[in-house]
User: Fold this.
Amino acid sequence: MYKEIGSDFWLNKNSNLEDKKLSLGFLNFNFSDIAYLSTGRSAISFVLDHLDIPNDKKIALLPPFTCHTVIEPFISAGYKVYFYRINKDLSIDKDSFLYDIKKFKPNVILLHGYFGFDTLNSVKDMISEIRDSGVVIIEDITQTIYSEFKHINADYYICSLRKWTALPDGACAISTSDLFSYKPIKIDQELEESKLNAFHAKYLYMNKDIGKKNVFLKLFHDAEQMLCEQNYIYAMSNISKKIQANLDIDSMRGRRRENYSILNKFLHNSKIIEPVFSELLEEIVPLYFPIYVKCNRKEFQAYLARNDIYAPIVWPKPNQCGGVVDPQVNWIYDHILAIPCDQRYGYDDMNRIIKVVKNYEDKIDKEKGDSLR
Assistant:
């Protein structure tokens, strides 16, 4: 059982890795071309550059619950951005989706599923017709890449690979019909080195009890700042390709599913949290165990952190969404939290999470009881 759960991955940078060729052959669709890039944000920019849509026709319809790094490439490329609507279970309402398309008349629609689950299922049957009308469909498969359900029939797919394991960088852009006219070859070597140093410092702390936490936290912070300040579309580094090629995908899938099932079994009836997805179908590989917090989220998250469990909100509401998204999406932004359940952890770690959550529930019950006396 690890002393802390969540936050950044770790990696022994001196590990011997097999010389394997990177392949995304496990994906359940055919594609014509692929470019490996440094970040998901750059993958979106790369696809938008490839489309070369005239400035006066740049209108995009995007997910309302998303990261600012999904929105920013569109704004930087000169797109007018609108947002479709989603339900509490993070699915898309079919009727409102069609209404938003007719209302905003987008040239590009980007969709993405959430936390490994098939939240786009309700609109899959209409995507081909939308494409036939001249709208370009991009699916961001970052959170669903390892799940085994059928993806939507998109023109392009993009993915940030580094969300799933210890990669210094790594993303891809996939075309299903045409070839990319160019592919970046320059690598951000400074970022690669900074991330590897951060991964290794945390590896020593977690596995060898060497070093101090504030040291690797500073290394990660500096590396992320470097990534945020990128203003060039870099290629994915060779070391990231090698790490990704050596990733045991089947083992990762199994461990994440097992961990999710343990959390779901013991927390689905909690008074203070509600799982966003109460059922884990066989084809799902979860990114996190996402929950809606029914008590004070900030205090609950802080309590978890005091017990060395780091549960991210995933996305604060982007500034670009201010005053645009509807009350349902605002509620999601205000209540969602993501509990770690990834391949680094096992049965004992999940039971520790369960114990801490139940202790907090007991604490709230006691405080309510005391206030009534």
